[in-house]
């Protein structure tokens, strides 16, 4: 007797999530690449931040504790290791929530509120994501195939869309209070 149950319950790996547009195949690629990239979160995060500050020196101006410090000192500082840890665990929280869009959106909204207080705009998030993507490509080498690169572009677009909307809402409520 034919049994179709297992077939019926099979996940369509290319069916976009209605909330994020990400497919199960893209989510798998994001989880597996991030798992490798984040195996040593603090040193990896430090290397990422140094790359960020070299590529986008303006990004360092948001980190008041590094004001006037040469990059060689910043690289060795415990504060940078703390930022690196925060950032890497922040990304892990998002990647872990890919299957729970409601949670993912809440994480990103909270992140946006915290960064909006520091006057960090969506354009800066976009620039930082650009550096993150090239950093992941260079770090993961052949593990970051074209499909994974596209998945990272897709997820950072989703994050940026949520950040932008949240900033718009925050600015509206700030103007209402004036
Ligand atoms: C996916 C993107 C990002 C993640 C996951 C992330 C994560 C975090 C986390 C978890 C914290 C600590 C908690 C808090 O104080 O809010 C933090 C703080 C901070 N982030 Fe981000 N961040 C991101 C993007 C950015 C961008 C685009 C900038 C701008 C260059 C930035 C600059 C900062 C600064 C200046 C702090 C405060 C550091 C301090 O003085 O303690 N972050 N970030």
From TrEMBL:
One of its GO terms (molecular function) is metal ion binding. Keywords: Heme, Iron, Metal-binding, Oxygen transport, Transport. SUPFAM superfamilies: Globin-like. InterPro entries: Globin (IPR000971), Globin-like_sf (IPR009050), Globin/Proto (IPR012292), Mb-like_M (IPR044399). Residues 21-168 form the Globin domain. PROSITE patterns: GLOBIN. Belongs to the globin family. PANTHER family: GLOBIN-LIKE PROTEIN. This is Globin domain-containing protein. It comes from Sinanodonta woodiana (Chinese pond mussel).
């Amino acid at each position: 007797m034919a049994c179709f149950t297992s077939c019926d319950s099979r996940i369509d790996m290319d069916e976009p999530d209605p909330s994020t547009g990400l497919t199960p195949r893209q989510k798998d690629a994001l989880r597996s690449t991030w798992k490798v990239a984040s195996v040593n979160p603090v040193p990896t995060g430090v290397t990422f931040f140094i790359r960020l500050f070299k590529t986008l020196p303006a990004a360092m101006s948001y980190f008041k504790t590094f004001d006037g410090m040469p990059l060689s000192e910043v690289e060795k500082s415990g504060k940078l290791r703390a930022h690196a840890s925060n950032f890497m665990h922040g990304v892990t929280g998002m990647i872990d929530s890919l299957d729970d869009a409601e949670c993912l959106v809440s994480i990103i909204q909270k992140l946006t509120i915290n960064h909006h207080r520091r006057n960090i705009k969506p354009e800066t998030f976009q620039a930082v994501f650009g550096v993150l993507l090239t950093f992941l490509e260079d770090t993961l080498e052949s593990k970051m195939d074209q499909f994974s690169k596209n998945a990272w572009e897709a997820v950072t677009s989703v994050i940026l869309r949520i950040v932008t909307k949240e900033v718009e809402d925050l600015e509206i409520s700030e103007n209402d209070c004036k």
